[in-house]
From TrEMBL:
SUPFAM superfamilies, per database record: FKBP-like, Triger factor/SurA peptide-binding domain-like
Source organism of this protein record: Sphingobium xenophagum
Protein name as it appears in the record: Parvulin-like PPIase
Record's keyword terms, sorted: Chaperone, Isomerase, Periplasm, Rotamase, Signal
Any one GO MF annotation of this record: peptidyl-prolyl cis-trans isomerase activity
InterPro entries referenced in this protein's UniProt entry, alphabetically: OMP_Chaperone_SurA (IPR050280), PPIase_dom_sf (IPR046357), PPIase_PpiC (IPR000297), SurA_N (IPR015391), Trigger_fact/SurA_dom_sf (IPR027304)
Domain called PpiC: residue spans: 212-309
PROSITE patterns: PPIC_PPIASE_2
Domain of life the protein comes from: Bacteria
Length: 461
């Protein structure tokens, strides 16, 4: 993967990812219009009054609460039904393993409606520019999604129905992603230019930073004001709790983050501390891979950080070594006790010690009744952290200690070959230019979507 260390903070986004922007407005989650008006005129109200020309004494006629009204909207004549919201919400809940509290579902429902409105505006704008996506192309993308679940399109459709969603919901999202991406390539990308001097400057900065630490960071950014700060902090802590209980960080980032990286699950890519605001850089340096921290106060709001990985800039990482492995595994019969499992694991470990290289693995496996599976081109980085440190120190022909559980059985990995990573080099000029162009396209895309929202005629029922 091309390192993204040279891209500025909070604007990373890949058009090639095929994911649309999901610019959240979580500062208003769980708050009615009355609450928002009260915040505008409270404390720093003088400035707000000057900007919005608000009366000194505000009387609210009637009650408008987006959390209790029907989640139905008409966007420039296109109807969104409650079923549309329910089915898209079901996809998010499924992505989180179904572990979403009822209160959280209501927050997500509001955000799903906003996302569907943006999606509708993008499809409509593409159509206005004579860009229409062939249903056959949507079907091909849908089939690839199904293949990721190791299901046929028909099986995947049945699975979605059991989860309360539908194939139509995913296909509509695919259509929106393809239409918006194609619109940006036609109306924005041709007018974006990057000079040779800019590319050279990036290469120079990369080479100067060689050997320093860099982190692959995920971020959920929530904007906040002094008035709504307590509510935003509460929202942030609730998100952390949901993720710690098994929720998907990328899924929550897509729905709640107000940074453009929401579209790629909050992934900032590889960044050095100097590229982050000081408060985020300090937090990242103190975190271990896999940890989540926050809420951290930043300019204009709060951030939740997730450290996905760590490495040295332009330095070969042993964890990028590719291994050829043989896996020997023995399953335990149903009802096996812990004592029986321990005894069988000990026998298994004794048999493994007899193996002198991968050439004997199949023979020993057959003798002890173990399944033997070959795995080639396995990156150490992609294995569980507990195994990475062990495999880094193994020579060809050596095996890991037995590992597993009563449910999964016991297994070992034998190293049959290792291809060490080549020395890391800076990305070439063409790669850097492409990334800088993407950055500028994304900036203009955010403005484009903002203008579409402003010009839209939206009716709520």
């Amino acid at each position: 993967m091309l390192p993204l260390v040279f891209l500025p903070y909070r604007i990373r986004h890949s058009l090639r990812s095929g994911l649309r922007m999901a610019l959240a407005s979580s500062a208003l989650l769980g708050m009615g219009v009355q609450g928002v008006v009260a915040q505008i005129v409270d404390d720093g109200g003088e400035v707000a009054n000057q900007q919005l020309n608000l009366p000194d004494n505000v009387t609210v006629f009637g009650k408008s609460d987006p959390n209790v009204r029907k989640a139905t909207a008409i966007i420039n004549g296109r109807i969104l039904t409650g079923t549309d919201i329910d089915q898209r919400l079901a996809l998010i809940i499924t992505a989180n393993g179904g572990k979403v509290e009822e209160e959280e579902k209501e927050r997500l429902r509001v955000q799903v409606l906003r996302n569907l409105i943006d999606e509708t505006l993008q499809i409509q704008e593409a159509a206005a520019n004579d860009i229409r996506i062939d249903p056959a192309e949507v079907q091909q993308s849908y089939e690839r999604v199904a293949a990721n679940f190791r299901l046929s399109p028909e099986q995947f459709e049945a699975y979605l129905r059991t989860q309360g969603s539908s194939a139509a919901s995913i296909k509509r999202q695919i259509e929106g992603e393809l239409a918006w991406s194609r619109l940006l390539r036609r109306n924005i990308q041709p007018f974006v230019n990057v000079s040779e001097d800019e590319v050279k400057s990036v290469v120079d900065r990369l080479n100067a930073a060689k050997g320093s630490d860099e982190y692959r960071i995920g971020e959920i950014y929530l904007s906040a004001t002094p008035e709504n700060r307590p509510q935003i902090i509460a929202n942030a802590r609730n998100i952390i709790q949901q993720i710690q209980q098994g929720g998907s960080f990328p899924a929550y980032a897509r729905q709640f983050s107000e940074a453009s990286t929401a579209a790629v699950g909050g992934d900032l890519g590889w960044v050095r501390p100097a590229q982050l605001p000081p408060e985020l850089a300090q937090a990242a340096a103190e975190m271990q891979v896999g940890q989540i921290a926050g809420p951290i106060e930043t300019v204009g709001g709060m951030s939740l950080l997730y450290v996905m990985d760590k490495r040295k800039v332009l330095t070969a990482d042993p964890r990028d070594s590719l291994l050829s492995l043989k896996q020997l595994s023995v399953l335990f019969p149903k009802g096996t006790s812990t004592q029986q499992a321990s005894a069988k694991a000990a026998d298994f470990a004794a048999a493994i010690k007899e193996i002198k290289g991968c050439g004997q693995a199949n023979e020993v496996g057959a003798r002890i009744g173990a399944d033997v599976v070959d795995n080639d081109n396995v990156a150490i980085r992609d294995l569980p952290p507990q195994l990475q440190d062990i495999l880094l120190n193994l020579q060809v022909g050596e095996a890991t200690p037995p590992f597993g559980s009563i449910t999964d059985g016991v297994r070992v990995l034998i190293v049959c070959g290792r291809d060490d990573p080549a020395s890391a080099n800076a990305p070439n000029a063409e790669q850097i230019q492409a990334q800088l162009e993407e950055e500028r396209v994304n900036k203009r895309a955010r403005i484009y979507l903002r203008d579409l929202r402003r010009d839209a005629v939206i009716e709520y029922n």
